[in-house]
Input
Amino acid sequence: MSLIEIDRIQELLPQWLETSRQQCGYGKVASYIPELSNSPIDALGIHIMDAQGQSASAGDTGLSFTMQSISKVFTLILALMDNGENVVFDKVGMEPTGDNFNSMLKLELVQPGIPFNPLINAGAIAISSLIAGSNPAEKSARVLDFLRQLSNNSSLNYDLEVYRSEKDTANLNRSMAYFLKDNGVLQGQVEDVLDVYFRHCSVSVTCADLAQMALVLAHNGKNPLTGEELIPRRYVQIAKTFMITCGMYNASGEFAIQVGLPAKSGVSGGILSMVPGRYGIGLVGPSLNRKGNSIAGVALLEAISQEFDWSLF
Ligand code: DON
Output
């Protein structure tokens, strides 16, 4: 069954991709991290992997791009593995905000002043301070190792130009982090926490790397190709739930209705998604809509999910 469907996906994918690519002109590449403004606005690529290692792909799958917010799913999981649920959810909440991903509006409106969820910038910065390690370099190395393991790609590494570009210009994240420190949410030095955060956002991947990581989540933490248990099932369940409720930021409700799959986007135009129990999906399309999600990527996922009736709902 799976083999037949992946063949059918491969047959249809190039045509859908080219139709969705036409959306690129209606969006913009991110420029608030200056280095990202060099991203190719018309690019669109997708890689879908099944539990037998069969793949379907189309478009610009050779493009490397930084994970940005997609990495937040995995730092959340690592923080849960390092500390357990009680410690993590003492510092971040479980609710969507309805605000932009970089908003700090609600931090002052609620008590305790903890970030609403781990996938907005404030929440992910709080999560960075919970990664185990005796210094920022050790924490970052643990995150990178985890991503290498999940992607089955030992050469995964940082895009240092994007890392520096963000670090040099991150006034908003920096102010948020100092605010969180004052609220007692961050442990350690603010600049150390931010360094861990900027590094994991700058990990460079391809669509195939994201598809492989997503495949592990789709199979409840187990790599179906090797049988290896990489993440406890409970933490995958938490991560996938956040992907549904907050993974596409303040467009998560609309995405749940139109696509109906767990997903996480990043401002580089990447999207990691999955069909639980079946496929891992990695996608890139740097042209973004007003909510910060890949404009053509969302259109492409809508088309495929509707054609194959993949919605969980
Ligand atoms: O902190 C930032 O703004 C970026 N490093 C990540 C933001 C991001 O990817 C939000 N995505 N839609």
Remarks:
- The chain has two domains: 3-65+205-307, 68-201.
- The chain has twelve helices and eight strands.
- The pocket of 6-diazenyl-5-OXO-L-norleucine is lined by residues 68-69, 101-102, 121, 166, 173, 201, 249, 265-267, 292 (CB under 6 Å).
